[in-house]
Amino acid sequence: MTRIQKPAAPSDRPGAHPHPIGISAAMATPFNADLSIDTGLLAAHAARLLDEGCSSLTLFGTTGEGPSIATAERAAANRR
To answer: What is the spatial order of strands in the sheet that 56-59 belongs to?
Structure first.
């Protein structure tokens, strides 16, 4: 699984939590008719979730599709 996070806001409080805290959305992976990842829809949906307030996203495996996606295809989708 791949997790995307917004950068944490700096904090001047001693002992502040070092990681973002908030909503983490588990995304289903959108596929094209040929079973390749629909990277355009994936990127648009990820952007929308982050814009709406999610602090992180979990990709490629939240609904069991992870083992069927090649590492190279995951990497290419993450670059998008």
So the answer is: 2-5, 56-59, 24-26
DSSP character string of 10-73: P--STT--SS--S-EEEPPPPB-TTSSB-HHHHHHHHHHHHHTT-SEEEESSTTS-GGGS-HHH
pTM recorded for the entire structure: 0.67
- Output the CA–CA distances (angstroms, integers) from residue 19 to 28, 33, 36, 39, 54, in the order listed: 24, 38, 32, 27, 14
Q: Find out whether 29 and 69 touch, Cβ atoms under 8 Å.
A: yes
Give the SS3 label for residue 76.
Answer: helix
pLDDT in tens, 24-77: 888 989 999 998 999 999 999 999 999 998 888 888 877 788 788 888 888 888
